[in-house]
Amino acid sequence: MNRTDLSKSPYERLAGALAEWPALLRRLRAQHPPTGICPACTTPGGRNVVEAPCAPRSLADRAGVIQRAGLISVA
After folding, report:
1. C or N terminus of the chain, fewer CB within 10 Å?
2. Could you give the CA distance from residue 13 to residue 34 in angstroms, rounded to a whole number?
3. What is the predicted pLDDT for the residue at 8?
4. Cα distances (angstroms) measured from residue 39 to each of 22, 25, 36
């Protein structure tokens, strides 16, 4: 299935594109935890604290769902 078939939503298209990059998907999940404070998104010094799941983690999780559902074939 072509990634543009997933949805007309830009978010879904981006998640579909990310699903085709398993190494990047693993890296995003490693750097952006599912709970707590996201160290990758929080500004050094704690001036801008971002709680998990942050936007990159949520996108990576959606891409994983797309990947597992077989909507994207990963070589």
Report:
1. C
2. 22
3. 72
4. 22, 17, 9
Assigned token pair, 1:
């299935």
Give the chain's mean pLDDT: 86
Secondary element (H or E) of residue 60: helix 55-68
Give the pLDDT score at 51.
Answer: 93
- Two structure tokens written together for 16: 């579909």
Chain centre distance of CA 28: 7
Alpha carbon of residue 60 to chain centroid? 2
pLDDT for position 45: 80
Ranges of each domain in the chain: 7-68
What span, in angstroms and rounded, lies between the C-alpha atoms of 22 and 1? Answer: 17
